[in-house]
């Protein structure tokens, strides 16, 4: 019955910074004699026996609504359970809701250590990791930390500036004789964790010394197709020589002093030129480097320039690719090669290049449309070509991963072959026309020949009547002006003779015999002649009678 008089604690929370653990809760009662106790269990115990809870060290019979139990937790990647109850003498409340946690997941990164030094118009800063000099660490890999610094002038209208810095670094571009304040935050990008800011530190800048004319200025890197050159300007009017030095980038991530770890670039020692080829120290997988120029005069006085950062694949620029064109019946083939003079394997393997093709008809019409095509391979094709047309192509390489693109290559042009069907069509039309002409000519010749034969037959017949047959009783047996359908044919007939009187019969026979002889000689007559002959015979027979 006594338990019902005490309520259970509410809103159980665990707050972790580095390896510091704090348990917090809320309680609605006002009785000052109420205390609180907590229990915990972790994964191994939980798997073997769900009822086996242990007292949480540092959280027994506490009067406040929070307690520190940092000493109790040593396994930061295991699952833990925590619960709290209220107590008053012999009375206890029911246990609160169980809070489950994995310490590493919910832990916060603590503030880093910060040291400042103001010199020559800049602020030198040195940062120590959040758990420096601690035996127990939540964050084991100190090299995984990255640091952000926020700086501002210590004034009422301050503007905040945020930037990433190394554990040992310089903050410049500051006004002289001005108080600046800053705070630093450690982050773990791989775990998407952002830590707590350090306490605010303030420092006053000094005047920057007059720039030494001996120092190299405007130090810059020009890189194309993995060929790296460092350039700088010389303001010194007397003899000066230069040493180009580099520092491997990861050394700046360390919390150690790297000032003695700069190395001279081979081939760039004691030179008088204001440029240096440092490609020999750069590879695509070597990571980033820092370079600087050391100038020395004849009195062995030296001056160091500002440092420049070189991240090979980021700093490098991609040159235009090589292009070769070839043409087939219906396709234009485009062969793309890495930029001239480049390390083709590095360009191909690390930039994951794609290619942008621009092609157009090279004609006098300035309004010809320029077409674009993007491909991944080094061999592209273009279809739908117009025969006997000059096509021009230029190519640009680009990398989406590095947001880089080259200039377009020089335009290459090639002419497509003519249409092969047109000669065939022309040949077919010519052969057809020739056949038609030949047929028409043959018909004309045949027609002329037939007309010639008819005229020759009608006007110049090859057969003539015998000379002894010229006519009969004043009528001609042939007429040269007869038409072809009135062609003379040989007519033979038998004339029956009737003997009326014996005296006349003899004469008639003589006549008949004479006529028969004429017919046997091949005389020809038409129907009118036959009818005329018959009429003469009838007349003759009547006269005889």
Automatic annotation (TrEMBL):
Residues 317-419 form the Fibronectin type-III domain. Residues 512-545 are annotated as: Disordered. One of its GO terms (cellular component) is plasma membrane. Keywords: Membrane, Transmembrane, Transmembrane helix. The keyword Calcium does not apply. GO terms for molecular function: type I interferon receptor activity. Residues 535-545 have a biased composition (Basic and acidic residues). InterPro entries: FN3_dom, FN3_sf, Ig-like_fold, Interferon/interleukin_rcp_dom, Type-II_Cytokine-TF_Rcpt. PROSITE patterns: FN3 (PS50853). It holds the Pfam family Interfer-bind. The chain crosses the membrane at residues 421-449. The keyword Membrane applies. PANTHER family: INTERFERON ALPHA_BETA RECEPTOR 1, INTERFERON/INTERLEUKIN RECEPTOR. This is INAR1 protein. It comes from Aegotheles bennettii. The lineage of its organism: Eukaryota, Metazoa, Chordata, Craniata, Vertebrata.
